[in-house]
Amino acid sequence: MVYFKNIPIYSYDIINTYPHDVSSFTQGLVYECGYLYESTGKYNESTLRKVELQTGEILKLHKLHENYFGEGITLYHDKIFQLTWKSKVGFIYDKDNFNLINKFYYNTEGWGITNNDEHLIMSDGTDEILFLNPKNFKKVYSIKVHDEFKPITRLNELEFIKGEIYANIWKSDKIARICPYSGKITGWIDLKGLLSPKEYKNAGTMNGIAYDSENNRFFVTGKMWPKVFEIKII
Ligand SMILES: [Ca+2]
To answer: What is the distance in A from the centroid of ligand 1 to the CA of 29?
Structure first.
């Protein structure tokens, strides 16, 4: 195991690859029962989509109004919660038909979202992670993410996995593993080299972590990446 500033740095093995829409500016990613749910960003291009993992086929697509820049999503009690970047509004959809059920509002930017079944867990681009009541969307508490020396900012797409928060760091090849109580970084996963140099030319930053809890499978992708990778963390 390699350590940096007393924090373990994990590497990866590629278990499998799946096709990914290269026009997809990935902002949120979750997995359930053979399907990925994905949120994409950019004004006038933002979407929510249901994608078959194996084929990359888009089975359902919802376009956001042109004024909204889509951000993170999470699946909570058969509903999809989707953030927008600067509009301070989130959308709640029926998971099965993408019908809009409700909206919710927040005071920060919206970046990533996940949940631990008790709270919605949200990042806003800073070092803060907010824990929200999923019924009234009020902040219950928050944590400040840090290593031994400094705050870790630009926390982006999130996934709550086995008691830890995993976070993409915007413009970085690393995923942070975060203690949800203290905010302390418990590890880094260095995903450099996932895409070949040629693939990387047309691709954006890594963003998108999804977890298959039934089969313990871990998926990552990025903005305009040609592939979704199933990886094993080592
Ligand atoms: Ca995620």
So the answer is: 4
Q: Token pair for residue 108?
A: 């920060």
Measured in angstroms, how far is the CA atom of residue 174 from the centroid of ligand 1? 15
Q: What gap in Å lies between CA 67 and CA 9, rounded to an integer?
A: 39
For residue 98, which amino acid is it?
Answer: F
In 25-105, DSSP assigns E strands to 26-32, 35-40, 47-52, 58-63, 70-76, 79-84, 89-94, 100-105
**How many domains in the chain?**
1
Q: Which of 4-8, 36-40, 71-75 bottoms out in mean pLDDT, i.e. has the lowest?
A: 4-8
CATH classification at residue 47: 2.130.10.10
Task: Provide mean pLDDT across the span 58-75.
Answer: 98
Query: In the chain, what is the straight-line distance between the N-terminal and C-terminal CA atoms, in Å?
Result: 9
